[in-house]
Structure prediction request, 290 residues.
Amino acid sequence: MPADSTPGDEGSEVGDPTDGPTAVVRRLTTFPVKSLDGCDRESIELVENGGLDGDREFALFDSNGDYVNGKRERAVHRIRADFDPATRRLRLAVPDREAAFDVDDDRAAMTAFLSEFFGYEVSLDQNRAGGFPDDTEASGPTVVSTATLRETASWFDGITVDGMRRRLRANVELGARGDSELPPFWEDRLFDRRGRVVEFSVGSVRFAGVNPCQRCVVPSRDPDTGDEYDGFRETFVRRRAETKPDWAESDWFDHDFRLMVNTRVPESSWGETLAVGDEVRVGASRPAAE
Prediction:
């Protein structure tokens, strides 16, 4: 776990983020409609509640007020979505047809299109102030490294790095500066044990790393079809335990179906901008209540 130090302090412990390649942002992704395809961005502003502007800004609900998402509705995986943040037009394609909608002006037509696809009525709600995050206690961007995606994809026949990327659905993907490479699970340095957080910054944005994300059924499904990968969870749990670095030991691992880091962003960083190429600097572990 990171030592109790201030950002930029040097150290030589195994897993110390100052001992090795410099981490930088390699990819930024928002998911304009919760559970649908992502949208890659070169830079993006942090909004109220610490989320990325436009991330999970919209969510689908059924008539009971429950999410229509990948956890509850397997058919979600068969929807292809392509969002243009400049025009705010969303193109949706389902197996038998496609259409484009202005997400601000064409919501009735959009929900009619999706209701017909699902076979039951759905509604589309919007929240510009932080969207509809999965973890409301750690509502900042989620973080993973390309090295972790590559490692976990190697555990499964037929799953590519991009396929694992689409299964895990992180907002911020990290690589190393220059020709270096980060070790797999580098991002596990960004959390500590329960009741503590790890301070880190990405460019000018300050973060608190809270916990390793508890995975649901979604990563076990083909992101295009929703078909289940046989034995995915069991293989993942076994290999995660076998390959977990020393710096990842934590009481958060009550089970090993955890990957990717959930974060919080302090109000002082709302309105700041993240960009591809921004450098990551890891600081102190501190009590979460501070």
Notes: The first helix runs from residue 107 to 118. Residues 3-15 have pLDDT under 50 and may be disordered. The CA atoms of residues 139 and 153 lie 26 Å apart.
